Amino acid sequence: MPLPKQVVRKQVVLALATLTLLASSAAGAEPAVKQPVDFNRDIRPILSDKCFHCHGPDESNREADLRLDSLEGLTADLGGHSAVVPGNVKASALVARITHADPEERMPPADSGRSLTPQQVELISSWVQQGAVWKKHWSFISPARTQPPKVAKEGWAVNPIDHFVLARLKSKGLTPAERADKATLIRRVTFDLTGLPPSIDEIKAFLADDSADAYESLVDRLLKSPRYGERMAMQWLDAARYADTHGYSLDRRRVMWPWRDWVIMAYNQNMPFDQFMTEQLAGDLLPEATIAQRVATGFNRNHPIQSEGGVINEEYRVETVVDRVETTASVFLGLTMGCCRCHDHKYEPFSQEEFYRFYSFFNNVPESAHVGNSDKATDGPVVKAPSVLQTSQLEQLSKQIEKLELEIKKEGSSAAKPKLIERVWIDDEIPAGAETIGNGGGAQKFEFVTKDKHPVYSGNKSSMRTTVGLSQHLVQNAKPGLRINAVGKLFTYVYLDPDNPPKEIMMQWNDGRGWEHRAYWGENSIAWGVNNTTSRRFMGPLPKLGEWTKLEVAAAHVGLPAGRVITGWAYTQFDGTVYWDKSGIVDSQPNEKEQQLAMLREQASGMKAGMPAVMVMAEMSTPRKTFVLTRGQYNSPSDIEVTAGIPSVLGSLPTDSKPNRLELAKWLSSRNNPLTARVTVNRYWQLHFGVGLVKTLEDFGAQGEWPSHPGLLDWLASEFVESGWDVKGMHKLIVMSATYRQSSHWSAGVAKSDPENRLLARGPRFRLDAEMIRDQALFASGLLVEQLGGESVRPYQPPGLWGDVVYENAPRFTQDHGHKLYRRSMYTYWKRSVPPPNFQAFDAPTREACMLQRSKTNTPLAALVLMNDPTFVEASRKLAERVMKQGGESQSDRLTLAFRLATGRLPNETERKQLLAAQTKLVAAYRNDLTAAEKLMGVGESPYDRSLDLAELAAYTGIANALFQLDESITRN
Amino acid sequence: MNSNQHIADELGLMTTRRQLLGRATTGIGSMALASVLNENLYAGRPDGAQAVGGKAGFPNFLPKAKRVIYLFQSGAPSQFELLDHKPELEARHGQVLGPDFFKGQRQTGMTARQEKRVCKSIYKFKKHGQSGAEISELLPHLGKVADDICIIRSVQTEAINHDPAITFFQTGFQQAGRPSMGAWVSYGLGSENADLPAYVVMISQGSAKRDSQALYARLWGSGFLPSAHQGVKFRAIGDPVLYLNNPPGISSASRRTILDLTNSLNQAHFDKVGDPETITRIRQAELAYRMQMSVPDLVATSDEPKHVLDMYGDAARIPGTFAANCLLARRLAERGVRFIQLYHRGWDQHGDVPRDLPLQCGDVDQPSAALLTDLKQRGMLDDTLVIWGGEFGRTVYAQGGLNMAKYGRDHHPRCFSMWVAGGGIKPGMTYGTTDEFGFDIVENPVPVYDLHATMLHCLGIDHQRLTHKFQGRYYRLTDVHGRVVRDILR
After folding, report:
1. pLDDT at residue B8 above 70?
2. Looking at chain B from residue 209 to 228, which residues have their Cβ under 8 Å from any Cβ of chain A?
3. pLDDT tens-digit readout, A425-460
4. Handedness of CA A434, A440, A444, A445 (dihedral sign)
5. pLDDT in tens, A598-641
6. Mutation to test the B interface, candidates A115, A187, A308, most B Cβ within 10 Å
7. Phi and psi at residue A248, to the nearest 5°
8. Measured distance CA(A220)–CA(A728) in Å, rounded
9. Is A656 a residue whose pLDDT tops 50?
10. Cα A281 to chain centroid, rounded
11. A649 vs A685, which has greater pLDDT?
């Protein structure tokens, strides 16, 4: 159809403007004249963003009775004229109003902040001119099984993905980048599929493998690794707002980690996605539901729960249900349902009533939305569940324990020929990190007195207390605490005032689990614990008055076996005046194997003891009625009662079944649902390319972004369903593509026109997630302790972070020790009010709400983490140790290994020289200051190898610290 | 010439590259980088000021305030004892309030079922300054600066419990997930100091620490805004900024050696790969290095003259106290930090007002007043907006019995008092009136949204224009509400 002359000329000018603009933005819409206007690609986003707010689906907010979100609305007779007359620009009121010369008359109103750009005006005019073809929103139409386009460069393509990508590149006059080198590729795909870098041996093997299927075997190996499940779960935990605390107010501990373990297990077993979804949404409603299927429903119990005293339950119960609606809709449908809680949706064809129909699916849980104040408190239905990951692990552990026991027996234990050492814990100072408390309140009541006025046994101070009746002072929450080794004997010195003697004295110890370890002398007047058990041991009569006496208690006698860590020590008395001094332990120094054994035993017993209660979904026997809430307010139910259902624009549930969560899951899994497969493959795509084919992962609605490759998205979605929702299969398909395997180097031409790489003319390059950055450091340094699942752990964090903010009587952070310091980051205890600070610096969310995409910022605070966080400093010194032991004799070889461990590739000559120069400089500095070197070796709790040259070790530590900070190291290239 | 020269050129990194390349063989000295770092970071602003980052077009108009110091009193101080004098309660003391009195007001689970008896304040009020502002005897220092502040007696909120109420104040929404106001301001206006974060948070523990309500990372979080806008905590325990200090055994000289190595390897990597993110990485590492020096300088208040320290009180010499934080707030303000937020905990007096309220006031009265005086003396009060207040008010009736030695009050959202000063606010006025029971607002209500809108207005921001698109919707701090309270503007 020829365009009127005037329009054509205007379009040329505009097209030029458009080109300039587009050149600096991503691969967005085409300029208007070049090709036919596509309603969904070109017009709907404009109408939605600029017009729907007042002329959209929300009836209550609709201006001038004009509705632009439907064909009927657009073409309706508005009293002799219509907004749109297809093919007739002049007769279309819409065009007249958006081009009106008078700013007062022009739409959208100037003060709305929604003005149209000239290109947008032009696009709308062209669309009307071309016949105003209207289509249902693209993502509400089921994906068609498209045929991959034919392309010239068939040889480059590995699978159909590449056909789609190539066709788009070709239309832009671009060509794909060369293939990434093998070292880059193995690191890229290993991170993407397992969240960890490849080992040096794996890199070497891959580089040496010249066979045609070398890459495919690599991918297959990675998909079989148990690390795969951990890596995929990482993404899912953000989506499912998983955390280890309740979130609100006291923000106390909760036990949802068995749910997290279920997720890992499901990924590792390659559970089909439809089943994965169904079990999480409605596992409890499946016939003869297993415990694991019920645990899976924890997905919708991961939301925060209130615990504040004055809370009105119903208010927060409503919030909880809304949270489920929002999370479920975002994760499985890519829709923002939350908007229609208070009113009809402004952009999508969902009414407020339809929101409450969806809400009704999740409104039937026997819960109170208020949780108690203990660390064991749960709310609503729970199941007692062993971790699905632990059965086989326990067997493995037992075998390891047996083996070690045998070895120790053979070699002789440290207890058999003990080398006893006295370690003082409390003398003139209290232990590191400990807090003091005493009766009478306040820290000052742990009273130190000095020897000028009072009896003192050792140093300059002793602690003193005078009382009538029962009284005590104590230290607690010490970090790192006092670890008990074999043949441990606890001791303290005591002095009883002859003028005011006590009736009884008692010592109590806290091992991080409680104070149930007591020993007493004198009368049995203090009724704590159970007499003649480890919680109250009689040790003898009161010591002689008026002189210092050493009291000794075998640790095992009060239930403190080797391996326990004492975090608190209490001095208790009944009546009298008592002085206490130097306290600590005499025990053996265990050998390495014994330490390891202790660690394994603790793990095994922890596993056996832990059958925690996990919060799950369940249905009330008498269903709760659902009413539309006026303005979304919990206390303003309207009289409109609704039953469960899905928004009508998406279809409907079968009428012959009872609409419940299981029916919802079935519909989500069905081919009638246009969204779930698209939304899911899009998320997988984002995982491998940094950006989704639809950039707005959480929004496939009118306000979401038009896909960069619509055909590809639909092809992948239908492929996914055809494959039986094969998750590993989909990941394999994506990483096998030639598109994925391109070099990620920026090429000059594309850098500016497509900085986000939406056209995929190069391979993906983006910063690693927080967890992977830490895991890589642990892995490269050899510190990483790999163990699937289990209770969350508390590695290093700066002191006092919880104390700054938590409620007065809520627990403070207690750091773990030993292997728990080195677990994969996804097992780090996630306290919502104080998320792990080193992860936050790398954009980890608080997990208070569903999050599908983390930002990737680049800040000085993140740089500081890599420089100074003990986690990274300790990893640096262990990496240093490793290269000194395994890197050969020459400095150059050792630096090469260090570089390779951090980046996965060999340094070139220039890089090697720079490394050498820095190393030489650092060695010289540390030779001059061995004290500094020694101090550096004290960062972190792992010991260092004293047989190595200290100055060199410190210098390599500095080098490793530099390497862990490299852009290349924290990026998957 | 390196193959990536043109990428750098195209992306405006030319200067960077030349300067870096010139030194690539010898390692990059800190001086060279320091100059690199500041180039191209400053954008032209309507107010002519220089800022780093920020949204195009912001501020929207000439701002009165360049920065905010928000003194949040967590736990909710009682208006009856501090800023809203109700002499009528003397006569009504002990009177039982029937259910009709409450006009359907929601009550917390703590007192919903108890008998509600009117409770007077045991503290006296006095008129201060030319404005004659009525201020409690518990706040004598504030009385001295009465002519500098605007007391608002008619703030109202929607939440009746601490967590939702403080989350509402901080993010404009009662549930978790939205950006905090400081993050919004950082997002809109950026920072005036490339070496310091735009949004700094400091926390102090109240002397009445028995019932300290919790705080949450979300209160200074960035929600769905880029996480670079989240508040950075300055702390008195450990490093003043998390992970700031080098670990034991790494001297400043070694750190420089290490950083030079990182930078030169990063530079080489950029030469090969061409991703501008790598250049940003170098810049941020250098900024981190500079912070290692500038932050300790900043927090070392020992260089303050004695008379200044004395003005804030003895506690100003103890790191981590509210007084010390007020002094730090002034130093941060001087250095161009955009949004400085202090939280002082311990104001939740459900009981023991006579014991605890004087303690809390003792913590904050002198330093708050000193902060105003100090800013004024430096000519900074005019462009610094200072805000003081808690998350809601307290009830006119006593919680539990009417024992005047131990009385307390429950949460009251319907009206409560705050004060604001400086940066565009009319000084020496009292705004808003509550009824004789201090139960309801008679005149000029100021919902939290309006307070937000007014705060943004002072900063030159139209609260309706500071939006961010997330999940298909344009969000703003004031949601669909908010009205600038023009009556209190200069």
Report:
1. no
2. 209-218, 221, 226-228
3. 999 888 888 888 887 655 457 888 998 999 999 989
4. negative
5. 788 877 777 666 668 899 999 999 999 999 999 999 999 999 99
6. A308
7. -90, 155
8. 9
9. yes
10. 21
11. A685
pLDDT at B271 over 70: yes
Fold of A414-590: Jelly Rolls (2.60.120)
**Structure token pair of residue B476:** 């703003």
B293 interfaces chain A, CB cutoff of 8 Å = no
Residues 6+ apart with CB under 8 A from B280: A858
B341 neighbors B186 (Cβ within 8 angstroms): no
Q: Round to the nearest angstrom and report the end-to-end CA distance of chain B.
A: 59
Of A701, A747, A965, the CB nearest to B472: A701
**Using one digit for the tens of pLDDT, what is the confidence trace for A735-776?**
999 999 999 998 767 777 787 899 999 999 999 999 999 999
Q: Give the whole-angstrom CA distance, residue B313 versus residue A97.
A: 65
Size of interface A-B (CB pairs under 8 A): 281
Burial environment of residue A137 by CB neighbours within 10 A (0 to 12, 13 to 18, 19 or more): buried
How far is it, in rounded angstroms, from Cα B463 to Cα B484? 9
Query: Which of A732, A644, A753, A633 lies closest to A688, judged by CA?
Result: A732
Q: Where are the domains of chain A?
A: 5-135, 227-385+620-673, 414-590, 768-973
Q: Do A312 and B106 make contact, defined as CB atoms within 8 angstroms? A: yes
DSSP A110: G
Across the interface, whether the CB atoms of A959 and B261 are under 8 A apart is answered yes
Question: What torsion do the CA atoms of A350, A304, B233, B30 make, to the nearest 10 degrees?
Answer: -70
Closest of A311, A315, A370 to residue B110, by C-alpha: A311
pLDDT tens digits, A530-545: 888 999 999 999 999 9
Residues of A in contact with B228 (CB under 8 A): 855, 857, 859
Inform me whether the pLDDT recorded for A303 exceeds 90: yes
The pLDDT of residue B41: 31
Specify the higher pLDDT residue, A59 or B296.
Answer: B296
Taking a C-beta distance cutoff of 8 angstroms, is the pair B377, B157 a contact? no
- Calculate the CA A513 to chain-centre distance: 27
> Among residues A631, A556, A633, A561, which one has the least CA distance to residue A597?
A561
Q: Which two tokens stand for residue A219?
A: 């991918």
> Within the 392-411 window of chain B, which residues sit less than 8 Å (CB to CB) from chain A?
410-411
pLDDT tens sequence across A40-58? 888 988 888 888 888 888 8
Under CATH, domain B51-236+319-488 is a member of which superfamily? Answer: Alkaline Phosphatase, subunit A (3.40.720.10)
Which stretches within A390-504 are classed as H helix?
390-411
CA distances from B454 to A25, A242, B424 (A): 35, 37, 10
Query: Which are the contacts of A883, defined by CB distance < 8 A and separation ≥ 6?
Result: A894, A895, A897, A898, A901, A956, A960
Task: Give the type of residue at B366.
Answer: Q
Which residue of chain B has the CA closest to A370?
Answer: B109
Tell me which residue of A225, A237, A238, A161 sits closest to A190, measured CA to CA. Answer: A225
